[in-house]
Design a protein that fits this description.
This protein is α+β, with helices and mostly antiparallel strands. The protein has four helices and five strands, in the order αββββααβα. This is Epithelial membrane protein 1.
Length: 160
């Protein structure tokens, strides 16, 4: 049981770290921008030097929503981690980690909404040629899978 708890804890910390990296780094899309290799993220466009991400007025609200949901996912993931540690020491034997699982499901939902909006609205950035998704986009979807698995494990896990 201790090994299972330790494993869940390590995967949860890895998920938090990957969420930080995927939200902060600017490598969601990689391609050529004005014949220079460039990458864009949720915040900046980098091609040699980084500058404000040029977004069409119609896509500005979508980008703000993606930014907000990714930040919310980090917040809920950290809250779930703290809740797990608190419940680990205060929960009676035989009880389940319902609160931690519920908070982690909210994190999962935030990642789903943020990454889905980005996928739908920003699959083809204007001004970019030969575009492909960067590692931050892939990390976001990996965190989506991990957070769902962790939340289900928290919901079925009993304190022994």
């Amino acid at each position: 049981m201790l090994v299972l708890l330790a494993g869940i804890f390590v995967v949860h910390i890895a998920t938090v770290i990957m969420l930080f990296v995927s939200t902060i780094a600017n490598v969601w899309m990689v391609g050529y921008y004005n014949t220079e290799k460039a990458s864009s993220g949720l915040w900046l466009l980098c091609n040699g030097s980084c500058k404000q991400l040029p977004v069409a007025t119609s896509d500005e609200a979508s980008l703000k929503a993606v930014q907000a949901f990714m930040i919310l996912s980090i917040i809920f993931s950290v809250i779930a981690l703290v809740t797990f540690i608190v419940q680990l020491f205060t929960l009676e034997k035989g009880k389940r980690f319902y609160i931690t699982g519920a908070v982690m499901l909210v994190c999962w939902l935030c990642i789903l909404i943020g990454a889905s909006i980005y996928t739908a609205r920003f699959a083809q950035m204007s001004g970019f040629t030969t575009v492909h998704h960067g590692y931050c986009f892939i990390l976001a979807w990996i965190c989506f899978c991990f957070s769902f698995i962790i939340s289900i494990l928290y919901l079925v896990l009993r304190k022994k």
